[in-house]
Amino acid sequence: MLKYPASLEKKSTGKISCVSAGLLDYGSGSPVSLSHLMAGVFVPFSSPRQLSVRFNYRPKTDPYCQARYTFCPTGSAIPVMKEEDIIEVYRLQAPVWEFKYGDLLGHLKIMHDAVGFKSSLMGKNYTMEWYELFQLGNCTFPHLRPGMDAPFWCNQGAACFYEGIDDAHWKENGTLVLVTTISGTMFNEMAKWVKYDNETGIYYETWTVQASPDKKSTVWFDSYECSKFILRTYQKLADLGAVFKKIQTNYTSIILFSGEPIYLGNETSIFGPLGNQTLAAAIRDFYYPFKPHRTVGEFFVDLLKIIDRVILNHQFYLFYNLEYWFLPMKFPYLKIVYEEVPLPIGSKTSFGV
């Protein structure tokens, strides 16, 4: 299994800037101005596309964060291959939670991606994937813990490498197809990159956020989930010299549609002793209906609150790169897409992503 280092206290990149003020309605019947909430200075959104940042190393997970299903239970270290080995690389894709629900989510094209390797010299197969340490719900919405002012996140994701390819799992409702062949030398270089990628790209991000359904529309925030790891892995192999087959490859994205996002601050500036208590309360209030539900009645009550907030009042709070953003939501609000992303062509880049 790919383990992670013990602690992290700082980011390796600077803060993203924010945008001009507007009006927010927190469902109380009276709009609240951003100038009242923030009492700060607003500058233009710094980039048309924000990507997940790289960190110096991985933080230790909090014991409060617990997984219903153990992360990477059969994980192992990535082996060192002989340079002359010929290794087949396979595209693997199956419906999310296929082990529990079969092809149910496959009908909605909500798919999980992985990559498989077959060593000709060793005669062994391997699977590599990247997913949530504490399941998808914890990566998408926080916990509101008693006695804690700020929302509490269990949103790390990580790579998992293990021996074997479960042919039935990938073939029955998904995809298992050869995409390229690499040498042992290329595999070993990829393994070094995986260690770097796993130690510095640590937070799972469910949402892609863009301005409209148009394919050329502005992407405000990019997701950081299983398919993005596979795409980065393919690109690394292409940069090392792998030549990919000309086959169609589609991936799932869950998209929120929003006007220009508004930067709100980080945990300290919003929830700290000198933070903005009005804004802090609004963020906690927004996340409250997304909590786990014990009864069907409780679920439908909170579902109505979510519809009222997101669709009727056009509000969404996004936590991205350890910072909070307000999204002025737009029709059609949310969409699940299954779109083609072509297999890569090599470039001159070497170790970065």
Can you describe this structure?
The protein is of the alpha+beta class. The chain contains 9 helices and 13 strands. Strands 8, 9, 10, 11, 12 and 13 form a 6-stranded mixed β-sheet that branches. Strands 6-5-4-3-7 form a 5-stranded antiparallel β-sheet. Strands 1-2 form a two-stranded antiparallel sheet. The chain has helices at 34-38, 98-101, 135-140, 167-173, 184-200, 226-239, 267-271, 277-287, 296-312; strands spanning 23-25, 31-33, 86-95, 111-119, 125-132, 157-163, 175-183, 207-210, 219-221, 250-258, 262-266, 315-320, 323-340. It has one domain (23-340). GO terms for molecular function: hydrolase activity, acting on glycosyl bonds; palmitoyl-(protein) hydrolase activity. This is Bis(monoacylglycero)phosphate synthase CLN5. Belongs to the CLN5 family.
N/C terminus separation: 22 Å
Percent of residues in beta strands: 25-35%
Number of helices: 9
* Helix-strand category: alpha+beta
- Report the strand count: 13
What's the SSE blueprint?
Layout (H helix, E strand, L loop, with lengths): L22 E3 L5 E3 H5 L47 E10 L2 H4 L9 E9 L5 E8 L2 H6 L16 E7 L3 H7 L1 E9 H17 L6 E4 L8 E3 L4 H14 L10 E9 L3 E5 H5 L5 H11 L8 H17 L2 E6 L2 E18 L13
Parallel strand pairs: 8-10
Antiparallel strand pairs: 1-2, 3-4, 3-7, 4-5, 5-6, 8-9, 10-13, 11-13, 12-13
Provide a brief overview of the structure.
The protein has 353 residues and is α+β, with helices and mostly antiparallel strands. The chain contains nine helices and 13 strands. The strands form three sheets. Strands 8, 9, 10, 11, 12 and 13 form a six-stranded mixed sheet that branches. It has a five-stranded antiparallel sheet with strand order 6-5-4-3-7.
